[in-house]
Design brief:
Helix 6 packs across helix 7, helix 8 runs parallel beside helix 9 and helix 9 runs parallel beside helix 11. It contains 11 helices and 37 strands. The chain has an 8-stranded parallel beta sheet with strand order 7-6-5-4-3-2-1-8. It starts with 10 loop residues before the first helix and ends with a strand. It is α+β, with helices and mostly antiparallel strands.
Amino acid sequence: MIEHLRRSIAVVVAGALLTAGIGAALPGTAATSAAATPGDGLALTPPMGFNNWNSTHCRAEFNEAMVKGIADIFVEKGLKDAGYQYVNLDDCWALPQRGPDGNLVPDPVRFPNGIKAVADYVHSKGLKFGIYTSAGTRTCDTNGFPGGLGHEQQDADLFASYGVDYLKYDNCNNQGVDARLRYTTMRDALRRTGRPIVYSLCEWGENKPWEWAKDVGQLWRTTGDITDSYHSMLGIAKTNWALADHAGPGHWNDPDMLEVGNGGMTDTEYRSHFNLWAIMAAPLLIGSDLRKATPETFEILSNREVIAVDQDPLGQQGRPIRSVNGTHVFVKPLKNGDKAVLLFNEGEKTERVTTTAAEIGLRQSPGYKVRDLWARTDRHSAGTIAATLPPHGSAMFRVNADRGWAKYPPAVDAGAALQSAYPFAEPGRNASVTTTATNSGKVPALGVKSVLSGPAGWEARPQSADHKGVLRPGESTSTKWTVKVPADAKPGQYRLAVRTTFWPGAETRFHFDVRVPPPAPVANAYVSDLAWLGSDNGWGPIERDTSNGEYEAGDGTPITINGVTYAKGIGAHAPSSVEFYVGGHCTSLAADVGVDDEEEANGSVGFEVWANGTKVADSGVMTTEMPAKPITADITGATVVRLVVNDGGNGISSDHGDWAGVRVICS
C-alpha cells in the first residue's frame, strides 16, 4: 500500500494539522504519557493471527461473513490451539467519510451489524480482534477511509469501545509530519484508553523504526509490502534478517504478513517462507483466505514445532551465521539451551548445505540429537547438521548435545538433482537424475537403499546400484537414474520423490520439482502472447498488453510512453521479472522501454534482459520525462530468458515500467 497512495494532499494541510496542535501535542493529549510504561507485558512473543489484506485487498469478499468464518476455522482446524489468536481487519472496513460526530463509520454493506458485533464474535471463540487505520489523513487504498492523523484520541477511544486488541497503524497520506511524532501520539492515545492493545507500526521501515520504536509499539514493519512471489519474499527476508539485534520480547521486527497459500509460490517456497519468518522471530499473521486453503497450506501453517521456534520465550531473533553463494545457515538460541537451525538454499540448483555443532555454538559432546521439524524425526550426529535442498528449499532442525545419542539412528540425508542446467523435462524423452545419501552419524547406516518415484505414468529406473550394505560415518553414496517422461505430459511442475531406508527401521525423504516447459516459439512472437514460466511484480500483477494498474488483473490502461501508445507489450511495476522458455530456438529480443505516462512524476526504473542467467542487455536508468528507449539483446542458444525491471536505485515510487512491443526473433 505504498504506491501513489502516500503522496501528499497538500503542504497546506500539513501546516493546518501542525497549527491544530499535533506539532507539539494534540488537543486533549500530553506530550508524554504517564498512563502506561513500555514494559506493559504485551506481545512478549511475536503476535500470531490473521489479516485479510493479502488475500482480499478491498474486494467485496472482505466482509463480516469472512471474518467470522476465519474465527471459526481457527478453532475448527486447531490453529487457535497452535497459537494463532488475532483476527485482524485491514483497510476498507469503514466508509470514506467520518460521521457527524467525527467518528469512523463501519461500512454497512461489509459489516451490517457493526464492528463491535464482529469483535464480540471473535472474542466468543476465545480469540482476539484487531483493526486498521493509517497515521495520515486517509488510509492507503483509494477506496479507504479517513486516517487517524489529528483524530488519534477519538479513534483510539472508538477502537477501545469496539473491544479492539490489536491496531495496525499504516503510513499513507502522512503529510510529511514527523514519523516519530505521529506514531508516538497514537501510542499515547491507546494507552489513555486503559485497554491493552498491541500496537503495530506499519511505517515500511522508512525512518528506521527499529532504532526508536521499542518504547512506542510492540512491532514495526521493516520493509514495504510483501507480494505473493518468491523474489518479493526473499528480498524482504534479507532486509529483515539483518536487523536481529533490535528484536526481543515486546518489540519485534515485522517483515509483513504471510503469503502462504495465496498461490503465487510453490509449496517448497511457502515452507521456506514460513521457516524464515519463524527463525527470525517474526509475527506470524496468516494472509490467505483459510476458507479456500488446501491441506498443504494448513500443514505448513499448523507445524507446531516450527511455531515453537518462532514463539520461544527467550525471544531472540535468529540470524545467518554463514551465507555463501546463495546458501544460508541460520541459528536461533532457544530458552532451554537448544539451537534452532535453518538451512536455506535461495538459488536455482540443488545444494547440500552443512554446518556443525561447534559453528552453531553448542558445547563439545560425544554426540548430538538432531530433530527434523518437518519430518518429525530424531537422529544423532557426530557434529554435522546437513540437508540437501532443492532450489528455494529449506530444512529446519532443533539440535542439542545429548549423551544418549546412541538411542537415535544416524542422521542420513537424501538428495537428488536433475542432470541438466535447468530443471526441465521434455515430454516423451528421458531425463537423467542422480540421487545421493550421506551419513553424518557416529555409526554406520546399514542396508541403505534409495527409491526414486514420480507421478503416475512417469518411470524411474536405476542405472547404477541403488543400495549399499554399509554406509560409514561421513560417507556418501549415489545412484544414477533414467526417468521416462510421458509423451502426453502437459506443461507444468511435477514432483519427484526419493525415499532412502536404512537399518534400524529408519528412512529419510527428499522431493524436488521438475518442469515440463511450454512449447518453445518456432516463429517470431510477442512475449505477451507466450506462456510464461513465472513472473513477479512490485505491486499488483504484471499485465499483458496494458500498463500495470497496481491492484487487480486487467486494471491497467493502454501502454503509453511519452505520448506514444503501443498495442502490445508488458506493463510492470518495479521490482519485477518475467521468465519464459525459448528452448534454444530464438536469436534476439527487442523492445521499446520506459516509464508509463500514467505516472506523471518520480518514476525511475531500469530494464534488464537475462539469458541463461547472464545479463545480455541493460537500458540504464529511465525516468518519467524520457521518451521510450529501444533495447535489443542477443539470446542465441538461450533456454530461458528473463526480463527484469529494477527500481533505478531510488526506491519504488511511481515505478511503472513498460516493455512496449517486446518480441523475440525465433525459428
